[in-house]
Amino acid sequence: RTVYVNGRYVPENEASVSVFDRGFLFADGIYEVTAVLNGRLVDFEGHVARLHRSLNELNMHLSLNDNALRDIHRQLIDKNGLQEGLVYLQVTRGVADRDFAYPDAQTPATLVAFTQQKAIIDSPLAERGLKVISLPDMRWGRRDIKTVQLLYPSMAKMEAKKRGADDAWLVDSGLVTEGSSSNAWIVDHDNTLITRELSRSLLHGITRRTIMQLAQQHDMKVEERGFTIKEAQNAREAFMTSATSLVYPVVSIDQRPIGEGQPGEIARALRRLYIETSL
Ligand code: PDD
């Protein structure tokens, strides 16, 4: 693969970042993941807008404009002949002696980007649906910032696998915040879609927003509010959304089947709609 590091396109085995990089020492960095379908970026404007929001919240500065960012994505797709998969982009506060205080604002950010191939449209997981377990949400209080601090979500995912499930939904004060790396949704018995309202407690998913718009365009009702695991277990359907999964139906939560224990009709329809509008 050809990857991007601080202005250069290099073979992956020649790419390097300093051991003093704050991303490495403090997880002082943010990222975005944009899906690629048919060689084209999906919802790119949304991902760049959220990147700026994360940068602002952490007082980080990036000297590249949006056209330059888009160009990096396009070049990586071209150089690697990527048809389907993702582009990962990471920005850290750069290289400085180890100190809890931020370095001088003049310190250049580190910018890294690479592609990863992945079958997104023809996904066996989407066909079969996911088994989910619930776990306490033990992440920090600014989950709206897309930082590279991903250890707890990794642990949650591993715990799910250890218990024979696919992923975890995280619960804070009795209500589901989101999945380990996705937003969580249920469909009630009136076919209303329910997903938690935006706050500092969860990531403001780009796929979440697009799915919400698509649902409303197709006369589905959407309610933004929190829900319990019990309500989700008794729902008609459950599903999750993210850039790399698009829409994944959820078929059980803590071993309780949702509906018939099969991927739901609405989740499948939204997945089809999202793919159609992105191609
Ligand atoms: N994760 N919530 C969390 C905690 C996430 O990590 C993600 C995405 C989402 C969905 O956001 P979006 O629809 O913008 O992808 C929600 C990415 C895909 C990842 O870390 O790989």
TrEMBL record:
GO cellular component terms, A-Z: cytosol
Biological role: Acts on leucine, isoleucine and valine. Involved in the biosynthesis of p-aminobenzoate (PABA), a precursor of tetrahydrofolate. Converts 4-amino-4-deoxychorismate into 4-aminobenzoate (PABA) and pyruvate.
GO biological process annotation, one example: amino acid biosynthetic process
Superkingdom field: Bacteria
Catalytic activity: L-isoleucine + 2-oxoglutarate = (S)-3-methyl-2-oxopentanoate + L-glutamate; L-valine + 2-oxoglutarate = 3-methyl-2-oxobutanoate + L-glutamate; 4-amino-4-deoxychorismate = 4-aminobenzoate + pyruvate + H(+); L-leucine + 2-oxoglutarate = 4-methyl-2-oxopentanoate + L-glutamate
Molecular functions per Gene Ontology: 4-amino-4-deoxychorismate lyase activity; L-isoleucine-2-oxoglutarate transaminase activity; L-leucine-2-oxoglutarate transaminase activity; L-valine-2-oxoglutarate transaminase activity
Pathway entry: Cofactor biosynthesis; tetrahydrofolate biosynthesis; 4-aminobenzoate from chorismate: step 2/2; Amino-acid biosynthesis; L-isoleucine biosynthesis; L-isoleucine from 2-oxobutanoate: step 4/4; Amino-acid biosynthesis; L-leucine biosynthesis; L-leucine from 3-methyl-2-oxobutanoate: step 4/4; Amino-acid biosynthesis; L-valine biosynthesis; L-valine from pyruvate: step 4/4
Pfam families linked to this entry: Aminotran_4 (PF01063)
Record organism: Kushneria phyllosphaerae
Gene that specifies this protein: dat
UniProt-listed Enzyme Commission number(s): 2.6.1.42, 4.1.3.38
Cofactor(s), names only, from the UniProt record: pyridoxal 5'-phosphate
Keywords in alphabetical order: Aminotransferase, Folate biosynthesis, Pyridoxal phosphate, Transferase
InterPro entries: Aminotrans_IV (IPR001544), Aminotransferase-like (IPR036038), BCAT-like_C (IPR043132), BCAT-like_N (IPR043131), Class-IV_PLP-Dep_Aminotrnsfr (IPR050571)
Signal peptide: none
Family per record: Belongs to the class-IV pyridoxal-phosphate-dependent aminotransferase family.
The protein, known as: Aminodeoxychorismate lyase
